[in-house]
Q: What sequence folds into this?
């Protein structure tokens, strides 16, 4: 029940359920993405995983 879509689509949700959803926090997908690009002089490696959400609080931030 931790979903912003649930809050947006169901206007009849009680105040207690809304505060419980907010208390649970944002959903954090378990992603592991890695990409290597070849440049003129070297290779570039770009990585993303779910720990990025801990370091950068603004990613996926929901204010309601």
A:
């Amino acid at each position: 029940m931790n979903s912003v879509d649930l809050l947006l689509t169901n206007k009849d949700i009680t105040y207690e359920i809304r505060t419980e959803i907010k208390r649970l926090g944002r959903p954090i997908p378990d992603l592991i993405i890695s990409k290597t690009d070849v440049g003129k002089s070297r290779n570039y490696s770009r990585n993303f995983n779910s720990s990025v959400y801990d370091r950068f609080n603004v990613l996926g931030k929901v204010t309601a």
